[in-house]
Amino acid sequence: MSGNSQNAPMAGPTASPIKSQVSRLIQLRSTVSQPVFAAFLAGGVAGAISRTVVSPLERLKILFQIQSVGREEYKIDVLRRRFQINTMSGMGYRYKSIWDAITMIVSQEGVWGLYKGIVPNLLKVAPSMASSWLSFEMTRDFFLAMKDE
């Protein structure tokens, strides 16, 4: 045998699977990479909207949690929460109902009082939801591309 067999290009069954794998990866890359920015942006916007809608209810929930616990046991956490909840609850006022809480907050602080503390929540939720939605979209596209083949 001569030395040509070692330098000969690969032929036969091993060359075909490599080319098909490369073409599959290229096709998968083009399928997955097109909507990346759109999926990331959609996830961030959806997270921000959902947090904005739910924020007044979260604020009310925290206010009712603070007033339901005895003042002496809750002193450590009250200081931390006062940065977010600087309302009548710190002065010993007890809300009678959800409607009472809403009317007191709006009369004392205005409508924006229902949205106190939303900026840190948005800074936390928007990137989290954006990356979560992006990973979902990419994983779904990956498995759909694998299913088609």
What can be said about this structure in brief?
The protein has 149 residues and is mainly alpha-helical. The protein has six helices and no strands.
Description:
The structure is a single chain. By secondary structure, the chain is mainly alpha-helical. It has six helices and no strands.
Number of strands: 0
Q: Into which percentage range does the β-strand content fall?
A: under 5%
Helix content: over 70%
Structural class by sheet pairing and helices: mainly alpha
How many strands, what sense, and barrel or not for the largest sheet?
none
Could you give the distance between the termini?
Answer: 41 Å
**Dominant shape:** rod-shaped
Radius of gyration: 29 Å
Order of helices and strands: HHHHHH
